[in-house]
Amino acid sequence: MSTEHLTHPIDETSRRALADAGLRLALVDTSDAAAFDGWLQADARGFLTARMSREALAEERGYLTTRRTTGVYDDSLPSGSPVGTVSSWPAPLTVPGPAEIPAWLISSVTVAPTHRRKGVATALLGGELRTAHALGYSLAVLTVSESVIYGRWGFGPATFATAWSVDTKRVRWTGPETAGRLSFTEPEDYRETGRAVIARVMASRAGEVGLEPRLADRLIGPLAGTPDKDEYRLVRYDSPAGEPEGFVSYTVKEQGDFTKHLVEVSYLAAATDEALTALWRYLIELDLVAEVRVSVRGVDEPLHALVSDIRGARVTGVEDHLWVRILDVPAALAARRYETDGSLVLEVEDALGFAAGRFRIDVEGGAATVIPTQDGADVTLPVTALGSVYLGHDLARSLGLAGRIRGDVAGLDRLFRTAVPPRLSTWF
Ligand SMILES: CC(C)(COP(=O)(O)OP(=O)(O)OC[C@H]1O[C@@H](n2cnc3c(N)ncnc32)[C@H](O)[C@@H]1OP(=O)(O)O)[C@@H](O)C(=O)NCCC(=O)NCCS
């Protein structure tokens, strides 16, 4: 991917809006350790985590130079640390096909509690969307701490994630035999292999994103700032032919009874069905363990089919996870594949302007042609709803029922929904 995002000038509309409020919007020079450390500490504070150690700061500085890093400064304060933060970078988003589209990833949206509700987030998000659009990205994506924030900027929830608790004293493995090899390894020995496995996983499923080294490495083993980082264990799965196909990183905690430890999965990567079943079997059959917890799995995680007692493997939560903001309707819709052919005219509403308009989508042989049109609309929907159905998740019907998609909801559903629901298996 290009590095133009690092040097593209700061958005003028947002710069002026913040200047009117006595604040300064600026790109952070990530080669200036003191300036970058101030930004990193402000980001950590925004997410309510502890102050970062020197070691953690040095590690983050090493990794994060590939992101566009923006701060908001109140120059009337003596500290010089930002009161608002955001970072962004381009990465491939896997869309139905699977195919890839270059996406604009946004993270680290924080505003200091001392400066909340003065329009800082509005300036940061507006600036990100205008910058992404100016650089030619047809959509922006993010994961969120709260689901009430990003709809106002045109993002819609497009993937959902499940959390599980498995009572391993209650369930028995009833899934298939797997022939590959499981072995313990250490993050430093597995780094390159693990990154390659993750890249395979991400490219194979709509909703996943290509992970920069920092995001991949923290799934393989904990980063410097992780509490309890010495507790992590890493087990790899290799196929009978010796091909690396998956791994699981997890911690084990005693719970007052040595026969009933708790295993918390940090990340389970499976590039093949064999890797998935082998790693799940490994977790379920661990001795001296009573419970395995895992989160950020797909809504179609096949666990119930792999154990003797369905109720021994409980879904403990289902949450919105990846949010999609379409910026360029023809480019975004033409980048994915479709499972049925058909034709629809979509009227897209977008208060911020980027995606507004009427478009005809014609799908033939699974490939779409999308052009602006004056024809009558079959379906009218806000850009948030278009983002929600874009990756294939089963959302058109409920959004139609709620009155947020009008017209031929069933036709939209048939065209956009995919047999395998999209999934994003990590945070960014
Ligand atoms: C969420 C956060 C970034 C908002 O920043 P902010 O500068 O106060 O937001 P703004 O002043 O630009 O507010 C924009 C609008 O969003 C609303 N809003 C902002 N945060 C909200 C929240 N957490 N819940 C509900 N509404 C919220 C505001 O009321 C305002 O609404 P309006 O346009 O109808 O007036 C800030 O509260 C924060 O840093 N929170 C902790 C970190 C976090 O959760 N970040 C999001 C990570 S994904």
Automatic annotation (TrEMBL):
Gene3D superfamilies found in the cross-reference section: 3.40.630.30, SCP2 sterol-binding domain
Keyword Glycosyltransferase attached: no
Residues where acetyl-CoA binds: 109-111, 117-122, 145-146
Residue ranges of domain N-acetyltransferase in the record: 23-176
PROSITE patterns reported in the protein's UniProt record: GNAT
Active-site residues from the entry: 150 (proton donor), 428 (proton acceptor)
Pfam families: Acetyltransf_17 (PF17668), Acetyltransf_9 (PF13527), SCP2_2 (PF13530)
Keyword list, A-Z: Acyltransferase, Transferase
InterPro entries given in the database record: Acetyltransf_17, Acetyltransferase_Eis, Acyl_CoA_acyltransferase, Eis_dom, GNAT_dom, NAcTrfase_Eis, SCP2_sterol-bd_dom_sf
Family, as annotated: Belongs to the acetyltransferase Eis family.
Oligomer and partners: Homohexamer; trimer of dimers.
Name of the featured protein: GNAT family N-acetyltransferase
Organism field: Gryllotalpicola koreensis
